[in-house]
Write a structure and sequence with these properties.
With 535 residues, the protein is of the alpha/beta class. It is globular. It is 27% helix and 24% strand.
Amino acid sequence: MAAKSPPQKPTKTSHAINTGGGYCSETKTFHSLRPPAIPPPPHQPLSITQFILSHLYSSTTPITTTTFFTILSAAQSLTYSQAIDQIYSLSSSLKIIYSLKRNDVAFIVCPSSLHVPILYFSLLCLGVTVSPANPFSSNSELTHQIQLSKPKIAFATSQTAPKLPSFPLGTILIDSPEFTSLLTQSSKQDTATNHVEVSQSDVAAILYSSGTTGRVKGVPITHRNLIASVVAFRSGAEPNPHAVLLLTMPLFHVYGFFMLINAFWRGKTLVLMERFDFEQMLKAVERYRVSFMPVSPPLILTLVQSDLTNKYDLSSLRMLICGGAPLSKEVADKFKGKFTQGYGLTEAGAVTSMIGPEEYKHHASVGRLLANMQAKIVDPLTGEAVGPGKRGELWLRGPSVMEARVSTGYVGDEKATAETFDSEGWLKTGDLCFFDSEGFLYIVDRLKELIKYKAYQVPPVELEQLLMSNPEIADAAVIPYPNKEAGQIPMAYVVAPYKKIRRVAFINAIPRSPAGKILRRELINHALSAALLKL
């Protein structure tokens, strides 16, 4: 699945760019205000694993003593030196014993464990495409993903393996003694002998979109995309090189996947949770003196509302970075000084971030564009790009953005690829956004989720944030509900201790994706079911 990078139009000279907000009035394009981040030449053979390891060896990280990651519930840990030895051994063993080749696809259905990061980096080193899936997916969901990615081999646990069909090279259980032996039976010398030359344009991973507005799509991410993301993201991350990062996001999701790669590249100590538990997370912050934690909006809300936070010492926390869905200003304000939002998506990786106290003050924003990223705000009605302060669909272009080519567009879905990219390689995100005059990006809502009320388009997120400003409401989701006069009216699902509001359906929990996005389609199906229509 190799492809050449899409041609990039030359950037206009800097005199046309508003230095305050990065907007070029000639091209109607927003440019990053960050210093340029220069990745390796794209023609240089290089896997993301090789790139990371070469950086680690040249850095000041003491790999023999620094903890790479710790599994909280099992109390297991590896130093960077041990992790690297296991990566070398596993990659060599998989090539020799299982005959894995460059551009083969490996389907991975495993919860977070000590072995998953080692497995990822070993496969990537061989040029094998990793395709991680949610271990809690239904059989039909897994079948759809397998049909898209066409894997040669699978990696699972004894609990998840029964969900899988047979594969040409079989299924390897990562919680078996046989897998453990693969981590130690080969040496660095064996790996050097079995070195695989990987092109940066090779597909490193097939990740699956959240499917909040349609069926899940397979998103191919190249080694070049990942390298460009890491290089661009470094200026906007936790500045302390010795920071301890607690990763609550699953490793099969783009957020967790990218944070894992970034943590390894920066030599951070990483704490993983096999399964999420809020109080266990608080205990981990206290025990490991966690300083940096990527989180989702529901988790931020729980941190604000829960009395458990008073039981534990959370003073080590220096930064919470939130992504996955918009967050209300009221909630963000409660984390002043320690909280920042960012924006990214499976097809583009990390897109925006905030750097420093001055930028953190823009609580409602998701930050400024990362290095090398370009953006447009396009009016969905006229198709014209608009300037600062005006709403429209966010379009993106840059080296970390998924490439719109036959071999690297959405896997097995040429129609979706054609709908998502324009002829110049711009990715249409489907998000309704605007930039302010200083280059800060604001997310309003998903375009496809806007409620068509008479002649108006109502963003559900704005109503949800209004509802959740009420301290008596724990969570809320707003969906379109059919109405003869208005076409659609906003209908709210509310998690609350009382039932005295009219146009509301009360529910035990709002269905959300692993990244915290509301799964509105599930609520719409519920709302339109025969039982509810009779009310």
